[in-house]
Structures are given as C-alpha cells and as structure tokens.
Design goal:
The protein has two domains: 250 residues, Aldolase class I (TIM Barrel, Alpha-Beta Barrel), CATH 3.20.20; 57 residues, 2-Layer Sandwich (Alpha-Beta Plaits). It is 32% helix and 23% strand. The chain is built from eleven helices and 14 strands. The structure holds iron/sulfur cluster (2 copies).
Length: 319
C-alpha cells in the first residue's frame, strides 16, 4: 500500500523528504542547507528530480552498481525482484510496496530508497549544525522539492521555527500551485521566495506540466500584492527548455505578466539540463523527453533569451 506524504505520529507532524543537502551555494544567498520535500502536483516534462514527484517513498535500482549477489531477491517479501534469463534484474513495480528491505541488504548501494518521514526537530537538528556558516555568509535554509507547499503544515512549522526561534534566514522554492491560504500562511515565515513560471498560456502550460497555470498566476499576484511589501524578496524562475517554452510568444507573455505586477520583480533563467535522466531509469520510468531531440541550450542562446526579456524592461539576474 502506498503511503501519502505529511503524517502525524503521537502529535508530532512528520514531513516526507527525499534529500537534505548541506553547504550549498545555490538556491538563495550565502551558504545554505537545502531541504527537498517529496511530492509535487505538477509533472513537468523536463523535471530533473523525478524522485521528488510522487508523495510516497520509492525504491530505486542503479544497475551499474549491482554485483548480482541476489541478496535483494532473497529478502524481498513480495517476490517483486525478478531475475531475467540473462541474470539481470527487474523490479516488478506492481508488486513492490517500497518497504525498503532490499535496500538494507544491498552491499553495493545499488538499491536505495527515495523518501523518508522526518520531524521538524530532526530537520532543524541538521540545519543548526551549520549556523556558524549561515551567520558568516548570510545564508540559511532553503526548502524546495518536489513542491514544499504540498506539505504546507510541516513546512510552515519548519520555517517558523527556523526563523523565529533560531533567527535563520529562510528561502522557499515553489511552483505556487496550491490554495491561496496555504501560500499566505507558509510564506509569512519566508524571507526570500523563488517562484517558477514555465509558460504563460494556460492550455500550453497544462500540456507541459499537467496543470493549468491560472492558480499559479493568481498566487504570484497575491505574493506581490500582499507579501512583498513586508520586505520579502521574490525571484521568478523561468526554465528555458528548447522547443518547448522558449518561443517568442511565451517570453514576451512572461515579460508582460511580470511588468503588469507593477513591481521591480527579478527573473532568473534556468537552462534545461539532462542530469535527472539516470534517475528515471533507476525508478523504471521513461524519460518524458526521450523521443524529442532536445539538447541543453548554449550560453550564447541563453544570452539571446535574456536580451529579449531585458529589452522589455525585465531585470534578469543570476542567484
Ligand atoms: S522495496 Fe520491498 S517490496 Fe520493493 S523490491 Fe525492495 S524488498 Fe521488494
Ligand atoms: S542486493 Fe544489490 S548488488 Fe545484490 S543483486 Fe540486489 S541490487 Fe544487486
């Protein structure tokens, strides 16, 4: 049976995360600890973190690390690992319950589980270890995913405690696809907001991500109107995916939307990359862009895209 994210045990709320990365210099100012929440309502075709999409723990299998000792086959309680005729292994996903038993016995880390439930205190214990670096570099904690607002209650408590109890600078990275009351209640405890904007036309947005963007655009307007005056910062992140969202009509539409917000909003461009490809394979999922010949854009190309936005009066930054 598959478990859903964010659960409560003995009065303590637990969040489902798939990674915590310390000493990062990306995703916000200074040195930061990144917390990746698992579960996302979008399915962007270019997603480089497929292990962050489903709201339950998932076992992955990295064939290149496997020594074919078959300990996992013996331990699996559900006969979910099949030995093929050539000796290679197949995880039968319809039988696998993601129990993690095979991960514990694998001697070569060829099997691993993405996703674990964790309390706010447990996350903060890790985050606090680097407090000295945050102070010196003006860094802090960044909560991303997956989609952090999909576990609003947990993330709110995490950011509230980080900010109010420990004085740690807080950043969130969100697609803003959630209810406005969740946006307001969580972002109250955030100093710096990264918000994605992938396509301006709602129909095309649905084709590329699985959902319409109306709620996202409304939430961005809400953030700008109600939260930015409280001295928070907002950077809109636009992924640049050749052939999918880099058409002039979309770039000009995004520029127009940002200008309509009537604030000096900054934009960051995120060039497409293929770093997540191997993870799809490890999860026995097809890479959604496999049949399309899409290559990471060159620096020159990104400069060209940048010029289109700058000419429309948009401030394009690198964070
Ligand atoms: S996670 Fe559990 S059910 Fe799935 S393959 Fe491993 S041992 Fe079997
Ligand atoms: S336990 Fe690990 S190394 Fe051994 S067969 Fe299974 S995946 Fe491969």
């Amino acid at each position: 049976m598959k478990e859903t994210m964010q659960k409560e045990t003995k009065g303590k709320i637990k969040g489902l995360i798939f990674n915590i990365q310390r000493y990062s210099v990306h995703d916000g100012p200074g040195i930061r600890t990144l917390v990746f929440m698992k579960g996302c309502p979008l399915r962007c075709l270019w997603c480089s973190n497929p292990e962050g999409q489903n709201p339950w723990p998932e076992v992955a299998y990295y064939e290149r690390l496997c020594t074919y000792c078959y300990r996992c086959v013996e331990i699996c309680p559900n006969d979910a690992i099949k030995i093929r005729e050539d000796g290679s292994l197949e995880t039968l996903r319809d039988k696998c319950t993601n129990c993690g038993s095979c991960v514990k016995v694998c001697p070569s880390c060829a099997r691993r589980i993405f996703g674990r439930y964790i309390t706010v205190n447990e996350v903060l214990d890790i985050v606090k270890k680097d407090a000295i670096f945050y102070r010196r570099s003006e860094g802090g904690i960044t909560v991303g995913g997956g989609e952090p607002l999909a576990q609003g209650e947990f993330v709110k408590e995490l950011l509230r405690r980080a900010k109010e109890v420990y004085g740690i600078h807080t950043v969130i990275e969100t697609c803003a696809y959630t209810r406005p009351n969740v946006v307001m209640s969580v972002l109250k405890y955030v100093d710096f907001i990264f918000c994605d904007l992938k396509y301006i036309d709602p129909v095309k947005h649905r084709q590329l991500t699985g959902v319409s963007n109306e709620q996202i655009l409304n939430n961005i307007r809400l953030i700008v109107g109600k939260l930015l005056p409280e001295e928070k910062e907002l950077v809109i992140r636009v992924p640049i995916i050749p052939k999918l969202n880099d058409d002039l009509e979309n770039l000009l539409g995004i520029a127009e939307f940002i200008k309509s917000l009537d604030k000096n909003i900054k934009v960051e461009l995120l060039p497409y990359h293929e770093l997540g490809k191997q993870k799809y394979k490890a999860l026995d999922r097809k890479y959604p862009l496999e049949d399309l010949e899409i290559k990471p854009p060159s620096k020159e190309y990104i400069e060209k895209v940048k010029r289109v936005l700058v000419e429309k009066g948009i401030r394009v930054v690198k964070t």
